[in-house]
């Protein structure tokens, strides 16, 4: 018997159309392939990647045996997406290339455009940005020719992500704003919400936390009104990350816990892992190292079970920070090396840059100047693609600290001053570490009055952070430095 896809009636084998409603009937093999693709998609969405792969492979084999090239492409595309999420770029590219070649043989321009976009994603992950842009541009041009503006916008969204990954936020915003116009013209509220979230991420990357918060809140409002629980969870997590950047740990934890609750209710393991990672970040800032480690290890286990290697690597970088704060520098460096390997493989340049800076700081804290120099040189090689002030501030601050360690104060002063220029473009709440380090350096080199000014800035920022749930350690360190200034004869002024 064959089941009618429209009315659900069981029809005798051999019938060409449903006797009840007249709808053309599919063969049992075709129905098997289509159902397998649908079931595999549901499994992938819930993070059950191994089961999804098995279903997709069975469906693909059935489609190839018919043969049905459209169903074959659907199954191969699903396989590519799952492999991509698992971090297996070789298998992902193989399946996406199959789709591209099949679409071109059939003259299916829409399928060709989709396959080009998927190939672009693979090239982006491999950090082959020129090839990624070439494939995205071909995809956008096909959709524009077909008059499919929403598909055009989806392809342009990938181009925007590419620009954001390089720190070219102006170009990313240009792409997102074009897409926002398309979504609003089509009254596509779901797409509008996600684009607003992407614009928020651009502002967050720039350190423009107030602007980012406005866009994330719009994302949350639309997601809630549309009943989009996934969008609600993502926006809550994003809002939490902004509060953390602003030093409001209590709000970061509150929003992170709400996001986690939604992810668990949806049984979405990968999203749950990401939410747990956000909570670990907040707990680390709170100074609760035991719970921070517990949460990040749970996040890593979930991401590993889901086969999401990029998520595992991001969480390993957080674990490295937890181990650093606990004084376990050797373990921190071991975990960080594992994360760096995946960042390189996946072309995750922003994460890789941050990891090199963390590696340099870890090496300095162990007194390993040559290792710190090596890590900083790796970060330096990536500077041409880092255009955001947060990254540049942190790079020059790290360089200044290394130069101080190497007893090169004049060179260190140059790096501190460059870091100061970038700090001026960042949110004040995010500059507390820089103010503390620069203030201490100025005092040590005899610029006492100016050093005191930066230490007072650090104190004000740290007091605000502590008032919103952050740990006291940095504030106590600043107060100790200021007390020393007040109590030590000869340090009360620059002329002493």
* Structural classification: mainly alpha
- Helical proportion? over 70%
Cα-to-Cα separation, first versus last residue: 97 Å
Radius of gyration: 26 Å
Give your account of this protein's structure.
The protein is mostly helical. It has a domain at 400-496. It has 23 helices and two strands. Strands 1-2 form a two-stranded antiparallel ribbon. A hairpin with a 6-residue loop joins strand 1 (2-3) and strand 2. The radius of gyration is 26 Å and the shape is elongated. The N and C termini lie far apart (97 Å). The model has no long low-confidence stretch (mean pLDDT 90).
Keywords summarizing the entry:
496 residues; mainly alpha
Short recap of the structure:
78% of the residues lie in helices and 1% in strands. The chain is mostly helical. It has a two-stranded antiparallel ribbon with strand order 1-2.
Task: List the SSEs and their pairings.
Layout: E1 2-3, E2 10-11, H1 28-45, H2 49-65, H3 69-86, H4 89-106, H5 109-125, H6 129-146, H7 149-165, H8 169-185, H9 189-205, H10 209-226, H11 229-245, H12 249-265, H13 269-286, H14 289-305, H15 309-325, H16 329-346, H17 349-365, H18 369-381, H19 389-405, H20 409-423, H21 432-444, H22 448-467, H23 473-487
Antiparallel strand pairs: 1-2
Helix pairs in contact: 1-2, 1-3, 2-3, 3-4, 3-5, 4-5, 5-6, 6-7, 7-8, 8-9, 9-10, 9-11, 10-11, 11-12, 11-13, 12-13, 13-14, 13-15, 14-15, 15-16, 15-17, 16-17, 17-18, 17-19, 18-19, 19-20, 19-21, 21-22, 22-23
